[in-house]
Amino acid sequence: MAKTAVNVRVEGRPHDDHTTGRAGPRGGTARRFRRGHPRPGFLGAVTGAGQRDQLPRRGRYTTTDGHTVRSGVVFRSNKLSNLTAAEWQVVTAHGINRDVDLRNIQERSDEPDHAPAGVAYQVADVASFSHGIRFHDSAGVTLLAALAAGLLSGSSDLGQSIGYPFMVNFVGADYAFRDTLRAIATNTSGGVVYHCSAGKDRTGWATAVLLTLLGVPMATVEQDFLLSNTYLARSDAVQVAWLHAAFAELNHIYGTFSAYLHTGLMLTDTEIAAIKSRLLV
Questions:
Q1: Which of 77, 171, 201, 246 could form a disulfide with 134 if both were Cys (CB 3.0 to 4.6 A apart)?
Q2: 8: which strand partners?
Q3: Residue 65 carries which DSSP code?
């Protein structure tokens, strides 16, 4: 019988982030999921159908000050709405007891998560209007600048070229990414999985922020971001120019990454230290 995959990516281990019907680097599918594809690095995959890949421990990410990112604490995924009870058992076997959902209200309504007992479900909607429709800088200026940058870079998806800087400029997104990071800081009883729908854009920016907070070099952050192309078997799933656009917006509004964490995401030094304590060895 073909093996299914719970498309969960974990620090220190490989990842699989398939959301389309395209064939991946390895064949064999069952329902909507493909097997995980082992790779070294910060993120990884968990296979379903009661099985778990023996994933390599080499290649964990190191920080600029010589620390190593701990595995088995924070996980990322694409949508979890289609997981069976057996696949959820694979997820919880990794100690995950909090599910942070970055998707918008329509996505959550159309395809709700069905987290089992023992897994706390938390919404961190990146597009939520619950804090108003507010921006740190002119939305019009951000839109025009992002559109121009996308056209100049030959972006494969102008919507994403625009969307990435707005994940920094839109106030509602601040609360979503803050709450995601706070969940990592405070959920000391188990692991945290955060996800959107495709597991590459909202989830990708959350991961880039987390890695940068931990002190992982930017070159590594970019390489990790681009790995979605490999495991989605698409050369245009993500583009590094989109990530650059988000960081450029961050620098434009805040000047430094530290200011973004403290002023934009409203994290305290204590919370930042707690995240580092959980994830660095």
A1: 171
A2: 77
A3: T
